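User: Quick one: structure for sequence A, then sequence B.

Assistant: Sequence A:
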Amino acid sequence: MTTATQNSISPGRRSTDRMREPDQGPLHDPERMARGLGWFSIGLGLAQIAAPRRVARMIGVPDDDGNRNTMFAIGVREIASGVGILSRARPAGPVWARVGGDVVDLALLGRALRSDRPQRNRVAAATAAVLGVTVLDMLTGRELARESELGERSGAAAERAPRIEVRRDITVGQEPAEVYRFWRNFENLPRFMEHLQAVRVIDDRRSHWRARAPAGTTVEWDAEIIEDRPNELIVWRSLDGADVPNTGSVRFTPAPGGRGTEVRVELRYDPPGGALGALVAKLFGKEPGQQVGGDLRRLKQVMETGEVVHSDASIHRGMHPARPSGTEGDDR
């Protein structure tokens, strides 16, 4: 179960959402280097597809139809390599596939050097550049393979998997029993969880979830309750085979001064597509902290007024849940 459509859960510092970041520079972090190579591949591939003749002239080969088609095909290969690298947490395989592509590129440049019409200085410079990238690809692939092997032995791979953690809370003007009862009927959750499409209750412990993901896709998973304290706490986790592996909890605590209930949500999840999925979500303004904060504001409105109150303030891209006045009830 998850309060954001794609999310999962775990304790963290108050009002914190974070992705684990490497502690070392890119030369000591093959995963970061691989991500750089992935974006480089995509950028190069887009240039080769958009302007194949211009790229051919830049590297000193004739811009005839044959070279144009070759450049276009290489561009497609580069984009596929980049997507393959960025869509994996440990992309040793896609990086080594890049090495294979580099070898093909070097062979093509060698043939161009032996032909009658190349601009040899440009071809030689392009060959040197490809050689440099090949060495970088090989070093990165070797380090990724070594870390994967070590991870399999020690469990480090699981520890370093891209994971997002969120903790948010809000004060709702209803008694804990009332808020708990509403949340515990999981089919109510799509009423205030913006990206959640549907929840189907299977039995007293299990339920099936369907949520919207980036680029118009959907993700689904089964979840089970692992702890349920009426009017106090619900803890859940996704089951094997989930599109979005996640765990989480929601706690219902009487607010000071008889102001209602403090609802505290803690989430940990592995985003769709690993690091790439998290990056895409962030680029489109769907950070997990934003999602959970908005969901909790909508929960407050549903519990206090019976419906979500929308605002069209110009600082937002579209309609959004209006924030309550003052600081009470804001997610932290």
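Sequence B:
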Amino acid sequence: MIRILSPANGPEEARAVLDAGADEVYCGVMPRDWRDAYTNMASPNRREWEVSNMTSFDVLAATVDAAHRAGGRVFLALNALYTEGQHGEVRRFIEAGGRCGIDALIVADLGVLLMLRDMGWEQEIHVSTGGTAFNAETVRFYADLGVHRVILPRQNRLSEIAAIARGFPNLDIETFILNRGCKNIDGFCTFHHGVNEVRIPLWWRLPKKWHWDYYLLGAMKRLPGRLRDRLGRSGAFGSVGACFLAYDADVRSATATDEERRAMKATLDRNFNLFTGFDTCGACALFDLAAAGVASVKIVGRSNPLAKKVQDVRFLAACRAFLADRAPSREAFRRFARERYAETYGYACHDWCYFPAEDDALGAEAL
């Protein structure tokens, strides 16, 4: 059965999401001495906000203990790209994580992969989406280095994911399923997401800590569609990252008609706005991902409030149970997923999709 991977920032959160139906949790640690030395913009795990991280390895150890007691596993993200001067500190992170009993490290830096081999690391190694494994050749490269799991980039389509998963039956393939649908490529992104915590720390840390951005977005989603979409592309609320910018994308084609180009332009506009950056969903694709043998689906959102994390896990667990218990057709499952989404969150999914409409044509041949 396909596994659900949830974020958790401490033992209480680990217990809660595992009780809700998650099988695995992932987390990050950013101690104060790291932040003092490099600032949060150089986060050791690609999540720059203080609210997204545990502050010590003591908290990580307690989280591992709580998760293991609940029957879950814990993965530590150490998936940034590091300078030579940071390698000593990264090695200490690895050793501390090992002492805490983590089940896997999530990494992206090839230097760290080689470091783990030299250290004789015995736990699992997972390659982050920052490793940009878009195709089978890249996945094979990582497999030859001894990794246990590869997390595919958000930009891979269902047919590509299915082909990779089927081509590597002895390797865990993981893909994203909920939240943070960034259109940019993680492994190539150099946007300094945490700059506001350095530039205006008081005005930024408290709203993030109290999740004001999440609650504001939830209220906006209940607005009439045209007003909501206009606000989502207006830039009125600024941007915490390149993921949420309303890009002005255009369509260049020598064969498409003017009407077809306008339709494609409208689709692009809908998919470059504030909302798709926060709560993108791929639950409809669980049918295809499970059929292809994908090992795990990842919920993004370490900075989300615990209630949201639990809500996300329960939603996906309900979809997974429906798939396992009812053996529905593809279309019946997709109808259930959309209905359950609206029931869970209080608004329709509005086609904020990880796997957009063109993936509907995947069909039985690709599966």
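Residues 361-367 have pLDDT under 50 and may be disordered. The chain has two domains: 3-191+276-366, 197-274.

User: Thanks, that's what I needed.
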